[in-house]
Amino acid sequence: MIAVLLDTNVVLDVLAARQPFVNESEKIFALAAANQIAGHITANSAADLYYLMTKYMTPEAAKEALRRLFSLLSILDVRATDCLAALDRPGDFEDALLLACAHRRGYVDYIVTRDQNLQGAMSSIPIVSPAGLLKILK
Length: 138
Prior knowledge:
57% helix; globular
């Protein structure tokens, strides 16, 4: 089974129904729900999502949304070594942390993001857009 690490922006597209991005991201969620792919997020992404969701809903509703999300996607831990490794990568720290977690885990086949800067990052793991992943999986 293909394992994908979803960037925060892809998950937020679904949770906030952000147009026009929600359609492709929902298809990725549907693949995870059908056990056709293994979907993952990082622990720091979970914290970021909670923070962002509480701007638009109650804390209780945000927690319930995360519970549903966690039943669909697994959470990759973030270790001190990931944070230290991220400091040595060029560019955005949050992107570097995502890459460090993915590389340490060793079984992530694709990183999925809409972030153009992250898509251009040097990585041994392919970094694709939601549309790019869907094209690969056809």
